[in-house]
């Protein structure tokens, strides 16, 4: 593992940096889910994290690593929502100015929350405007530091703290997870979590779970190199819609992942409702894909112990309500 | 405290009985809630309990205390839902037959779940049929043991285990809660919790929270004796609609409670939605009243540490969806 973009030590340092600022989310077990899956399922509800998703971990670790000069220049991020909130909240805590570029069609709750954390939100049209060009103009004006959503070792190390917690919490229960199901967009979360989990459980099989039509990591794993999807896919999983894996994240994921699974929008909606009824947790579409894969039978536990990461809970109320009503 | 219907020792015994069967729910803290309330708020999310509410604790403790002869006769309970599920699930685990009398207008999810636990569900019409008479007929036929929803020392001791957990978990964080807000119907939960919390934090102020129009415990506390409300009230908090406090529960509550607070349906809906957006927890109307009281400013924390019990999460999907949509 010596050539990985991040090492276990980076994650341990990140854990120290975020301590007292991020929440140590619990590791939960539900009799109903164990029975349903005929195994032992440990839920890591990162919906309970500050800002409602794991993104705060990586954002805080990155911003806390900036030099005094960089802090003065402020930060810039582009994100459809969860990274935006993570960066905005971390920036406020550290007294750093933040500008966030968000698509106009991002869930309204995510836009509102990002503003509430004190960030300056700049909206753009996904169809007609060029995000990179706007970002370039903004950074040229202000000198702001770009905080990438996943392809940055500081971000990946921050997300990896979630894996360290899982390992410690599972060990406290006397358990050794054999499978982990982790939502995957650009791959920063699963890269960090894989490094952490493999350090404690070398035999664990970590699977990326992606929305149908956005299986860039799955295709890249199959091909052995980064693949870019053609545009035009559609999915309700707004938080994890990427066209290609990150360069650094894939460097880790191609070596540590056991494979990738996909789920349909219908399976995601079923899982959202199942989590509502049985886990009493509010999960957003992109955050529930691991559970969706499990409930859809994409992987059979057969008595094994699995960890499922519920990576975010910033569900749009209208979409959530519609999901509860239409599958009634 | 020597003349209380239950003692700390009863709760400690109940804790041993339910161990490994009930979930030790975590004690959660949310930065957003602390900021909102200008204090330190510890959330006890009993929505994560087996069967989705605290009722499993008391039901399991009671059923596990039955003699072999009683077990053979089976159990009977009447309940609009959460006690029903608690008894049905505990009965299944202990191999005891269960019959549950439920009102026809109970939330469909609660009726379905009770059946799924294997109980025989008998529906009756609240308006035209006499629950007590039906129960008397059923017990006369089968000899089944009636499991009361709250006015039984075994039930109260079981619910008290939730208070023991809060005390231990708060102490592990180095905190001494000064206030506790607990949903109150017949008063079994708050009676057990009060005994447990007062044993560890003698100065704590425990408040019953009731729906507007169902403030039987509040009126009884004010009068110094059990008061019965006139019929005709209406509230969405189906789980905690009682006309009078229990005899045994009030014996404890009149001595240990600091007071009672009420919340309106509108405040309950606001809190349901607030919990959805900020805590990512699914709470049912009757379970969220403590949070509703806090958010409505019924009690000012002013830097103090408070515990809020979210007692159940078996929310009807249609009502929940409507709440998300109408307050948008």
From TrEMBL, chains A, B:
| CDD domains in the cross-refs | Thr-dehyd
Give the Gene Ontology MF terms in alphabetical order: ATP binding; L-serine ammonia-lyase activity; magnesium ion binding; pyridoxal phosphate binding; serine racemase activity; threonine racemase activity
Q: Which GO terms describe its biological process?
A: D-serine biosynthetic process
Q: Where is the Tryptophan synthase beta chain-like PALP domain?
A: 20-312
Cofactors required? Mn(2+); pyridoxal 5'-phosphate; Mg(2+); Ca(2+)
**From what superkingdom does this record's organism come?**
Bacteria
Q: Which InterPro entries match?
A: Ser/Thr_deHydtase_PyrdxlP-BS, TrpB-like_PALP, TrpB-like_PALP_sf
Pfam family of this protein, just one?
Answer: PALP
Sorted alphabetically, the keyword list is: Lyase, Magnesium, Pyridoxal phosphate
Q: Which family does it belong to?
A: Belongs to the serine/threonine dehydratase family.
Q: What is this protein identified as? A: Threonine dehydratase, catabolic
Gene source species: Pseudomonas batumici
